[in-house]
Design brief:
The structure is a homotrimer.
Chain A: H1 4-43, E1 44-46, H2 66-87, H3 95-121, E2 123-124, E3 127-130, H4 132-149, H5 158-179, H6 184-198, H7 215-237, H8 244-270, H9 279-284, H10 288-292, H11 303-332, H12 340-362, H13 374-403, H14 438-444
Parallel strand pairs in A: 1-3
Antiparallel strand pairs in A: 2-3
Helix pairs in contact in A: 2-3, 2-4, 2-7, 3-4, 3-5, 4-5, 4-6, 5-13, 6-12, 6-13, 7-8, 8-11, 11-12, 12-13
Chain lengths: ~450, ~450, ~450
């Protein structure tokens, strides 16, 4: 591997790199925190369900909105911090980075989204009014950020993550006004692809020695998948109408996920030369159904339709992982590290188009609030979808350019996917075996998510 | 271990073995999915709480059944996918198989149970009516399947698991009609024992080199135990009557589990030659109380009785692990891989008998709905218990015979407990140390669950 | 490291040590269980929400208290058994001890607290009346025990843990009468420091070869942090008034934790020579905000104040880890293994003082129930705080003396932080690499929690 001489050089390079973090990261975080706390002090107050002064003798404590909102909020917290955190720790030597940068990013994304969404949606009498419902909305914005970041996992510094966060949130929340939560996955995906297009690293197309999993990291990652799988119904129903709408949302999500799970196992064995299952498929593609039912999750689409959407989205996602992602990287300079285009882009597109069709079917004589015919409404929604993709991609590319600024501590190619760059690592870090025979092993090892060496 | 020559032979054998999976698994899964989606399309519709057309102006959204059902449903999902998934990953090299085949099996079991139970219990006006309550019932049927499979963990292929699933569910749901959820553990146990009796592998009685745990797998497994422990009250109360019944069920389950936990630690140190604690005991025997209170969990049995049941069930379970399981394997050709007879059979029997006695005690002048005296009712229930065991065992044996068919990709003895048979494994898979000195170590290592070499 | 000769001696020493566990642990546990079950049989019965005989035709099942209490109870169970269990498994070779002794201790603490609190707070008509609300109260007492034990992690036997448990609970519940749940953290911290002061081990001041983390143990530990982080709002609100009080408690806890998380990352990079992040900081200091908002969590303190408390508590906690803990160990003979003084002591003090100030501010003309002025009330509360600390410290030292009794199987210095003393360990236990170059590495490795070798 490395002789003592180059190891010393390595340590020097590393130290110079992370020395930036010693000033830049605290400086950035403290600046942001000062901004947040000032905005909180000036603008943020309690809403009707959190303000003690607005409770009267007539108020029934158990009818406080918190009892309806908090359970879903907590479920989605588990998805964000635990599910996503574990899922992203699949790299053999980027477990700390995966789980812990997710922790930092998500925390900050939610804080910032509370403020932005506060100004756009919860602002009256000169104040942002805060309750758990704001937190749920902020979680959705946070999900956009985390999905986008999947495209560049292992290739950025925490400074870059925090800087890009603003741009993502602001763009998303401008667009979200008209689209509702349908566009979360689509927006997040194409924004992330825009970023990674600009941050293209040619040398990574031949693979990277640390771009592989270990037995334990694969286990932890699939555990993350299971957390996301179990609580996805909460995510899909949290912002739908209470009552039968939320009940249908839960049902459809469960059915869609079940269908995509079974289909994922089938396709994984089928598309693998030696008929073996790939852990990367189990970690990612099983979740496709949750995204694909998303846009029509509260409609009366029938349980069979939810099942069909699960199977369809899963198939598109799997084919994307096997064929489209390598093509995007090789030909279009889009290195999609976690394959977000398969799990959120393709499935999100199918989901949105399906919802438009279903809406046509379910309500034939539909006249939208603005007096459109059904056909016009469909065209309007397709246009909204198209402009969302365009704006997301452009926003992503602009953010990518921003991230190329020299002071943001971007890791060099050599130090991607490497915890040692930003963390103190334990004694056994360097003793973990790294893939020795990179040539043949690397090409055949489909158990490494995103490990497409001959990009 | 193996020289290059036999490693090549090994890889050949393995490839031939799993090549079966490349056609058989997708073929089976797609066939099943087509069947499911057709049945869904023809027969499955929304129930009163999920059908938008049945909601009126008078309907109060927050009184929708989903708000009572979904929390328990989600808790049990965590037990099934996360708790059980982690618990079953105790083998050093069968972590992928344990956690991921549990994922596949559970998903399919719930889907199939929704249909079968739908036809038996939720069918009217020519349709199965679906809501989250159906999902909860399906989770219980799924638990039967997963418990049964514990008897053969590491010794089957996913094709075998899916094939046997039908039989288990159909049998269970025929029997369950009269027994309620009391018989879950008993049925699952003896069905599983029936299967493993037929699938007896003589060479495994001397132990298997991969039939041991690693430090990380033991940690992940006990984490699974903790998930099951924390949410078992939800499992035991989900199908009891709302109100004080559910409250008692939660209370008794917690007390019973606490008692069995303390007792398990005591017995583990006591029954171990060197006075050390065994992780296998902590992973399994601590849970015994949850099963043992199960049959009387909503009755007015007094908290002290719940405590006593916990201690009793734990003791039976521990003695079973130490003495009965080796005997069953050595003399009766029943290789109970996870010791389900101890955790679900013995405890389930104690639970059922205790419930019968308690019912006698609590309601002396009991006249059952069919006009029986108390004594007759007790005899009737004992008869139901006996016939359940018999039917389960026979059903299990028939399923075992079915699983011996040649096209189901059954692993040879050599490839049991080995992820490499069905999964692409990461680079560090073969570098994990395997027990070298199998003789003395193996006999004394009680930390390996089910590691009873001299069967 | 060790030659065969001393390894044999080691095994002898170890065997003699744990042989004590074979008799002592079961004897102690069985004695305690007999005591518990007798007390249950004589004194414990159902409360109004669990007693079937007290339900009438007018009773609405869904208004049973269990539906308000159980969700918070289950969330806190997840924190206690899973969150804390994972967090405490950061030592490379004390994972079993960390997670499993936490399991044993917590189970027994809750059982014992149910009885003690039962006699103090739920006793009428000659009986302790039991429902899930009792369990929630018991969880809080359990938290006191677990926090205290953090000071001596890896340095005690399970026998010592169970013996000291009584003392802690009894002391705490005597004091808690007047203080509410504000004093949990403060009491637990100074009790634990009292214990560790008496159990001072001079040789540990130069560090211990096993007092370090591994890559996997650091991952599992931060996963525990995430569980605690996600559910801390449930912990802080479970015993506050229903309605807007609980809603504010959830909001403030979330805000406080978010603030301390961001601040922790900033300070971790800033205070580290090489600007790298330390996993120990991410595992512990991110949680400081949850403690610091605790005492005023249901008051109308404004969201900005919650944010400020989070930042403040985090800063105190981090400075404590970096500078105060080494000083306490080096100069005051207080070896605080997990740094509980930073995460619970300093933050708890800030929290309590802040609450006193806020109460002054919020209610200027306050006349406490006993006719005091606002100033008098503040002085009274400060006196209560001071006496709590004094009583806790003294109680802790007395307990420490008790733990020095010869029959409690205390590990020798050599066998601290070592699972092999009390557990059967898997084959790969001794192959895990231990820090080789202890001198320079040890001093710089801030990723090991509590690893302050030059105490």
């Amino acid at each position: 591997q490395m002789n003592t001489c180059s190891k010393a050089q390595n340590t020097d390079k590393m130290t110079k790199n992370s020395a930036n973090l010693r000033v830049r990261l605290p400086a950035l975080i403290f600046a942001l925190e000062v901004m947040i706390i000032v905005l909180y002090a000036v603008f943020v107050t309690y809403d009707d369900h959190t303000n003690a002064l607005l409770q009267t003798n007539m108020t029934k404590p158990m009818e406080n909105a918190v009892y309806q909102d908090y359970p879903f909020f907590a479920d989605i917290q588990m998805m964000i911090f635990i599910g996503f955190g574990c899922l992203l720790s699949f790299f053999q030597r980027y477990g700390f980075g995966g789980m812990v940068f997710n922790f930092l990013t998500a925390t900050f994304a939610i804080q910032w989204a509370i403020l932005i969404q506060g100004f756009f949606h919860f602002y009256y009498d000169g104040k942002i009014h805060l309750g758990v419902i704001n937190l749920i909305n902020a979680e959705f914005a946070c999900a956009v950020v985390l999905i986008s970041f999947g495209a560049v996992l292992g290739k950025t510094s925490p400074v870059q993550l925090l800087v890009s966060l603003f741009e993502i949130l602001f763009e998303y929340l401008k667009i979200n006004d008209a689209g509702g939560s349908i566009l979360i996955h689509v927006f997040a995906c194409y924004f992330g692809l825009g970023v990674t297009f600009i941050l293209y690293r040619p040398s990574l197309n031949d693979g990277h020695s640390k771009e592989c999993t270990s037995y334990q990291s694969d286990m932890l990652s699939v555990l993350g998948t299971l957390f996301l799988w179990v609580f996805w119904p909460s995510f899909n129903c949290a912002l739908t109408l209470r009552g039968d709408d939320q009940h249908r949302a839960i049902l459809h999500t469960f059915i869609g996920l079940s269908a995509s799970t079974l289909t994922a196992f089938a396709l994984s064995a089928m598309l693998n030369k030696n008929g073996k299952l790939s852990m990367a498929d189990v970690q990612n593609v099983t979740l496709a159904g949750g995204v694909t039912v998303g846009a029509s999750v509260d409609m009366m689409i029938t349980p069979a339709a939810a099942y069909a959407l699960g199977m369809l989205g899963c198939t598109a996602c799997m084919l994307g992982y096997k064929y489209l992602s390598p093509f995007l990287a090789r030909r279009l300079r889009v290195q999609d590290q976690c394959g977000i285009h398969n799990l959120h882009g393709l499935t999100g597109l199918i989901s949105t188009v399906a919802a438009i069709c279903e809406l046509q079917e379910l309500i034939p004589g539909l006249k939208a609030g603005l007096g459109r015919t059904a056909k016009e409404q469909a065209l309007y929604q397709l246009a909204a979808l198209g402009s969302t993709i365009a704006l997301a991609a452009v926003g992503g590319m602009l953010t990518g350019l921003l991230l190329k600024l020299p002071y943001l501590a971007s890791p060099s190619d050599e130090f991607c996917f490497d915890d040692e760059l930003f963390f103190n690592v334990p004694a056994d870090y360097n003793q973990a075996p790294v893939a020795q025979d990179l040539g043949p092993f690397h090409l055949q090892d489909a158990s490494s998510k995103g490990c497409f060496p001959s990009f």
